[in-house]
User: What shape does this take?
Amino acid sequence: MKTINEEKAYEMLLNKADGKVAANQELQNLLDKKGKVEIPKGVYSLTQTLRIYEGTTLIIDDQAVLRWDGNPSSQPMFLNGQKGNKEYAKGYSGDSNIKIIGGTIDLNGKNNPPSNRTGYGPVAFGIGHAQNIYFYGVTMTNGYNNHYVDLCGVKRWSFIGCQFVDMIYTGDRMYEALQVDLQSDNGFPHFGTADNTPSVEGLVSECTFNNVPYGVGSHGMRLNSSGNRFMYKNIRIVDNEFINIAKTAIRLDSFEDTVLNGNIINGYGEYGVHILGGENIDTGINIIKGSEATNIFVTSRSLDGKRFESARVKRVSYSDNGEKNLTGTINVSSGAVNLSESINNFKELIVATGIVSSNNLRHEIARGWRSISFRPGEDFINVSTSNGKFVARIDSERKLTILSTSDPLRYIIGVPK
Assistant: This one.
C-alpha cells in the first residue's frame, strides 16, 4: 500500500507520461524512497542521470518507455552510485541488491545523436562495485556507439529474457551491448575506485541481441602487481539468440570457468564467438551460422609484453550445417509441442531439458531411422535428463506430446539429413 506522499509522487509522475516534458525529478523522488518502485505505462523523457540505491526493485510497466533526451555524449541514464565521486565505493561494496524488471529503455540515438558522427552515445545502465544485480525482461534499444549496460566490478548478476536491439554503429570501436568489465578509470569513469575489480559469477539467459555491433563480453584486460590477469570468472551465457551482429556475438577476453550453451548465432561480421586468452571455456552445443573458420575463434591475449594462451577450451558447437530450432525457447513439462518444420527433414534431434538457474541444463541427441528418419504415429523420443528421463510421442510430422519428463523441455533443434 502506497503512502499519501507516494501517491502524490506517482500522480506527479503520471502528469509527465506523455514524454513532452522531462520527468527526471519525479522519477528520482520515487527512487530516493528506495525499496519497490513502479513506473506505470507512458513515455517518460529523461535529461539527467537517475540514481538507483541499495535494495531497489524497479518495476517498469511493459508499456512504459524511458527515453533519453539529454546530452547524448557518454551519459548514463541510470547509475547505482554517486556520479563523479571516485571514492564512493571499492571492490563489491557499492549499492547492491538491485532488480530491474520490464519496460523499454530508448536511448534515442536516431533523433538525439552525438555531434561527432563517430562519437559516443549514452549508456542505459552503469552498474559498478556491486553484488546481486538482476535484470528481467528489460528492452534496451536505439543506442549509438556505446554499451547498453556497463557492468564493471559486479559479483552475482543475471540478465534473463532481456532484449538488446538496434544500435547505430558508425565507428570501429568495440561496443558490447552487454559489457562485462572491470573497474578502471577509462572503463568506468562514472564513480568509484579504479581498483580493477572484475565482474564475476554471472548469467545471461534467454536474451536477444539483434542488430548490434557486439553482443555480450569484454575487451578490457588488466594485470595485477604480480603480472597475472584479473579474470572474469564463473559466467554462463546460455539459451540466447544473436541476430545480425555487425562484428562478434560473444567476445570472451580473459574469461575463466565460463560456459556457452544453447545459443543461436544467426549472422555475424567477424566471429560468432571470439575467445582471447580464455581458461576452461566450455562452448557446449550452440548453432552458429557462418564460416567454420570463424564460428568459434580462439586466440592468445597479450599485454605489456606478456602473452597469455587460451587453455582448456572445449569446442563442440555446430556451424552452418542447416540446423533448425524447431520450437524456440520454451519451458514445458506436459502436453503438445508443435514443431516449425517436418520432423522427417532431420536425421537427429537435439533435445534440451532442465533449468538454467539450477545449473542442470542438459542436451541429448535422439536419432531417427537411417533410411526413413522418424516415423510419426510409431516412434517415441526417449532421452536422459539431469534428474531422470524425457519421453514424448511423435504424433505427426509437426507435433509431439510429452508423456513424462523429470525436467522441463527448453527447446528442440533438428539436425538435417
